[in-house]
Every structure is written in structure tokens, then in C-alpha cells.
Amino acid sequence: MSLERPDTTDDAAIERTPDELEALLGDLVVKRDDHLNAPGFVIRPDTVQETLSILKEQAGYDHLSVVSAQEYENRYESIYHLKKFDDPTQEVSVVVPADKDDPVSESAEPVFRTADWHEREAYDLIGIEYDDHPDLRRILLPETWQGHPLSMDYDKDRPQIATLPEHANPLQEHYKDSESDTMFLNIGPHHPATHGVLHLKTVLDGEQVVDVEPDIGYLHRCEEQMAQAGTYRHQIMPYPDRWDYISAGLLNEWAYARAAEDLAEIEVPEYAQVIRTMGAEMCRIAAHMLALATFALDVNGDFTATFMYAINDRERVQDLLEDLTGQRLMFNYFRLGGVVWDLPEPREEFFSKTRDFLDQLPESVEEYHNLVTSNEIFQMRTIDTGVLPPDVAKDYGATGPVARGSGVDYDLRRDDPYGYYDELDWDVVTEEGCDNFSRLLVRMREVEESAKIIEQCVDLLEDWPEDERNIQANVPRTLRPDDDAEIYRAVEGAKGELGIYIRSDGTDKPGRFKIRSPCFSNLQTLPEMANGEYIPDVIAALGSLDIVLGEVDR
Amino acid sequence: MSSDQPFITDESQVVTETRDARMTGQGDRFNSRLREAFGSSPFILTKFDKFLNWCRGSSMFMLQFGIACCSIEMMHTYAVKHDLDRFGSGVPRASPRQADVMIVPGTIVSKFAPRMKRVYDQMPEPKFVVGMGSCTISGGPFQEGYNVIKGAEEVIPIDIHVPGCPPRPEALVYGVVKLQERVANGEASPVTVKPYELEEFSDLERDELVDKLADQIDEDELVMRYNFADSP
Q1: Interface-testing mutation among B63, B69, B121, B150, with chain A (most A C-beta atoms within 10 A)
Q2: I need a surface site. Which of A115, A256, A456, B229 has the fewest CB within 10 A?
């Protein structure tokens, strides 16, 4: 059956109990601090690399999902959330407290490359310094920012200064390296190919890229602060829509819903789960359609027809979603414990509209294959460019279509099932090509899989007994999870593993709310894919990553 | 028609037919509303400004400028279903040097504000701005954010605000058409006070913050100073 994992005989895949892990780590563990999702081991701040490499090499925890940092009354703390690519239900948290007066902790970058950006973010927003980090500077806020906004003593009202050094003429002498004859080129932050406000600092040698450094933070909208200021029950849910705004709203809402429901132990009725699954997959189709549309435009400006076709299909999905949720883009449809309302009446009309859409979808997909993937120009531009080997992808924590395009068989819908996915018949799509072309193919084939899921959901919903249509569990008016309960939960968003870490502090608002954005990790792989390639290939690689800046910067 | 003179047309024939068509109203080809306004004469008498305003309002080049969520709806507005081009204003230009109108589709944060100001400055006069969505009005849902500019009007002057989070494409179309109307009637471009100017670092008033950053920032570098305490 498609939902079964391929057999793994590797030692690393063996599941170890928390006590076995503790024995494996030995003296490194200072004490236990278990989270709701995983055992947590507190270690000393100077043994981070040692601990993580034991867990990675000997216990097989090869996926550093996220580094979440926070400040307590008496200490700073970084938490490394580890998982296995082979089985993401096996999780472990490594908790690293740091001194309140001098918060220094060892960097995990030599063990997991992905820790680079995550630790820079922790430094930027919280103020923890990481020893041995290759490049510890601000990542989201301007270089000249004063203070660390998510730390406790931050003064929101103090004046700030943002600089703009980009006004200089790029051909001026100081932009040239006199010895090697390279040229510095800014791409963005306002550029049609950067999919929003991303800034690529590129160094060129001739037409080849020597070095590319993504500069992010041009859309850092303080999403974590917003969530920490909102109450669990209603005030947080509108924000996830705006993380990955390419119509992936329901997928994002599910990330928050899943974390908060597990934290507050809310059971979601089965009927609501089916509606959620259906809606989420519609969002996935819409998101992948836009990825296809803009990628085709990035690769060749003459693909405007593809753009129009794909937008047309998106409009159809958005019509369905509007019928379901009442909104075109920012759905705000999920509630903790269910969804806000039932399917639109008359139900038959909605079902037949959905079926019409599903019926014409194979034809459109065929059309895209004719237009794009079997196009010779397109193939020349994308096949064997932007190569991302699977081990590099894993090292950077890449997930979603980017990882699956490199042959990493990792999909949380199957591996860490939620919603109604494990009851349905569908396949996880992987491609072995590791290049721009495979990533696009994965998306296009995933559209077909999503259509399969929607069809099964529609079948289920049509036959659902009238008196069992329960869309909402009983949820207390005010949610106050236990003090100091911590949880990290992830779902498969359109771009990959979208996770939420919540620490409750006994009130009705989260004490710390950390978003693990798939795009943030995926974008980190860009230099690996782009260095040594030609400049148009950088644009193609960026397009194939399908980043959305709202989620990268949050 | 003889082969040695291939492109000779019978002029008297054509002119007569055209003129007849104009006068009698036959032949839809010549019966635009403009034609109607002109009457039978091929000349018009108007103020030059009025004519130019009418030209401006009838053909607006948009800046291809995506910031956040609203830019997705903006793309839909340009694309097949809503097709902003129907109103003579749907050609997105990638370069600010070629654009007349800037739609600001999203949240402006501290790091981006100077860049947006720069792009705005690069557009040739006369230029117009449509603020799309609540974020460009007040910061919208992110108004409380430590990093968020409380409305795009803090940075550049805005002619039309389209509220919504995000506005539907129809709303954006309405906003743009409203702007075209105002431009055509010569009513656009209000002058607004811009609290956050882009200045050179050396021009800034010396205060604690400027002194602190003095050795990090080049004197010639452009900077924007945010007084969050005074923000709306």
C-alpha cells in the first residue's frame, strides 16, 4: 500500500526509548526537561556540538527542524528540535540554557549546516550569542537595529535607523575586486524574479556566479510577536494565513491548529477532519499552480501564456475555496477543535462544482506538460541546473517539494499522519533528478495526488450521515494550557514542513510562539545550488525553490 | 490595379466615404465616443493640460512591485479573469523608470521602507500611488509590530487607498479606475507631509542613537530614521 514506508534496515532507524537515549548521551545530560512531543535533554552550553553529533551519527537524528530560542526570568534557552528524515515521529529536543548576563552558547553549525540561519535569527531576535558560528550577524532586522525585540527588556518605542547602502553605483571601483575581476551585483529587493522582497547579493566572475548570499528581512512582520500577543482561541488563527500567503492559508492554519490542539488536548471530530483535509489540498493545488506559473516566467519571459493558464486554474480553486470559507485568500476557516462552518448549502452544488474542477484538472495538467515540461527550451534551462544532492538537502533541513525533488522520501502527511490522510489512498511523489526540473515535476505530480485526495474526501462527505456532521469539538471559551508545557508540532505545508513551537506560561496567550518556516530552510540551500552556475540559472534555481517571503521572514 | 504602381489608392473615394461615415454615423469603425465628442470636425479645441490629463488617465503603466500578500491578489487583477488591462492600466513594467503608477501591495517594514522610497524616487513625474490593503493604511493586522511602518504614507504620498485584507481584485480595479478618473480630471496627487525622509547619515540631528552608530555608518549613506514613539 502506498502509505507504508519502504523497509529500512539501517541501525539509525531503530527507535530508542528516551532512557536509552539518555544512556547514549551519558554525562552530557544535565537533567531531563521533556516536551509534549519529545523527550528533552538539558545540556551545558559548551557541549552542543558533541551532543548533536552523537545524536546525529549514532542515533540517526539527521533532521534539525528548528532552533527555537527564548528568554526566561533567570536564563536564556535555545532548543534544538531534532527528528529523523526516515521517521519524523521520532523526535528529541536538546535544551541549551545560557547565562542571563552573558548568553553565550556553542553553535551547532558544524554539525547541521541549517543551524547557521536559525542561530542568526535567535541572535537577532532574542540576543543569544553563538560561539564558533561562522557569521553571526543580524538576519531579519537592519544591521543598525538597537536591541533584540523578543527579549524581555526591549523598548518598542525607541527610535531606530535603517540604512540604504545600495544607492552606490555598482560599477564604482570599490564594487570591483581588483585582483580577480569579479563584479558585485544586487538582485532585488525589488525585482520581478525574486518572488517578493528578497535581496540576493551576488558576486559574478564573467557570467558565472562565484557567490550568492540571500539577504532577507524585507518582509519581517513580527509574526511571532503578533502570535504571542494573541489569545489561543481566536486571535492567533488569522495570522497563519499571512505567513505563506500564496493561497496556502488552510495548510498554515492547520499547523497552528495541530500544535494548539495537541497542547490543549482537543479532539477534532472526524467530519471536520475530512473537511480540513479537502480544503487543505485545494490550497495545495492553488499554491503549486502559482509556483508553476511564476517558475515558467522566471525561466523564460515568453511563458506568459503558462502564467495566464495557471492563474486561470487558480481562480477555479479559489472559487471553490471561497464557497467553502467565504474568502478568496485569507480564509480564517479553521478553529481550534474543528472548522468554523459546515459546507456551503446547497451541498450538491458545491460537490458538483468540485467534481467539475477535478474532472477538467487532468486535462489542464496535460496542457502544462505540453506547454512547459516537454518544451525543449524549458528542459535545456532546467535539467541539470540547480543541482541539490540529497545529503546536502538533508543537512540544510530542506523539506517539501525541494527535498522530494532530490529523492528524499519525506512527507509529514504520511510519516506523521494527521487529519484524515492515513485513511485515504494517495502516493508521496519523489523524483531522483535533484535539479530544477525534478522540483517542478514533483509539484505537478503532487497536484494530481491532491486531486485524488479531494475526490475521496468529496465521496466521504457526500455519504456522511446527516446527524453526525459535527464540525466543532467542545472547546472551553478561554484556553489556558498548563504552565510551562512545551510542544513542537509540524504539518506538511505547500512548501514543506511547517512547524510551530509553543510554550505556554499559564495564561491564555502563548509564552513563546516560534514558527518553523519551510521556506526559511529551503532558501538556505540556494548558494549550494547556484555557486558556479550562470546567472540565469540562479534565477531558475530560486524559482524552483518556490519561496514566499512572508514565510521566510515571518 | 497595375503592377508598376502597387500602392495607389483612390483618395477621393476614401476621404468621401470616411467623411460621410462620420457625418451620418454609419460604419461603427469610426464611431468611438471620442468621435462623437469631436462631431464632424477632425479638429478639437481644448486646453492642453486637459488633453494631457486625459491621455495620462487613459494609459497608465503600472510598476511591477510585489511586497506581500496583496501582491498575489494584484497578480490576479492583472491576469485573465479580472484583466485590469481592460481599463487601459494593466501593463506592469519591471523598471520604475518606465512606470506611472505604483501599487503598494503589502506591509512596509523598517528594512524595506528606504528601498521603497528609492524606487518611488526613481519613477518619473508625474507619478501616482495606489495603496493596496490595510497594511498600507495603518500597518493593518501588524500595526503593533516592532518592525512595521504604520502605513505607507509615512514614507511616500498615496493617492488612493484601497482597504481590505487583502482587497478583492474587484476592489483594486475600482481603486485604479478611481485613480484614472481623478488623473483625467486633474485632481490627483495630493501633497502630503512625509515624516520619514530619506536622509544622508551626516544630515541627521546628532542624538544618542546617531552618535552611537557614527563609526558604523558611512557619512554619505542614505538612512531612514524611525520615531516609533510618534507613529500613529
Answers
A1: B69
A2: B229
DSSP letters spanning A232-252: TTTTSTTTGGGTSTTT-HHHH
Domain assignment of residue B21, yes or no: no
Q: pLDDT > 90: what percent of chain B?
A: 6
For chain B, the domain total comes to 2
Q: Which ranges of A36-162 does DSSP label H, i.e. alpha helix?
A: 48-57, 115-125
Confidence at residue A9, expressed as pLDDT on a 0 to 100 scale: 45
Q: What percent of chain A has pLDDT over 70?
A: 95
pLDDT at residue B118 greater than cutoff 80: yes
pLDDT bin (cut points 50, 70, 90) of residue A55 is confident
Distance between alpha carbon A496 and the CA centroid of its chain, in Å? 5
Q: What is the mean pLDDT of residues B122-132?
A: 86
* Chain A residues within an 8 Å CB radius of B118: 164, 166-167
Look at residue B143 and tell me if it is in a domain: yes
| B138/B222 same-domain check | no
B88 CB-contact burial (10 Å; exposed 0-12 / middle 13-18 / buried 19+): middle
Rounded to whole angstroms, the maximal C-alpha distance in chain B is 88
Q: Give the domains, in start order, of chain A with CATH numbers.
A: 11-131 (3.30.460.80), 247-480 (1.10.645.10)
Pick from A382, A381, A401, A402: which is nearest to A392 by CA?
Answer: A402
ipTM value of the model?
0.85
pLDDT at B2: 45
Which candidate from A163, A190, A329 shows the least CB-CB separation from B72? A329
pTM of the model: 0.86
Residue B65 sits in a domain of what CATH number?
Answer: 3.40.50.12280
Least CA distance to A154: which residue of chain B? B146
Domain membership of residue B33 (yes or no) is: no
Higher pLDDT, A361 or A247: A361
Domain coverage including residue B117: 52-184
B214 and B154 within one domain: no
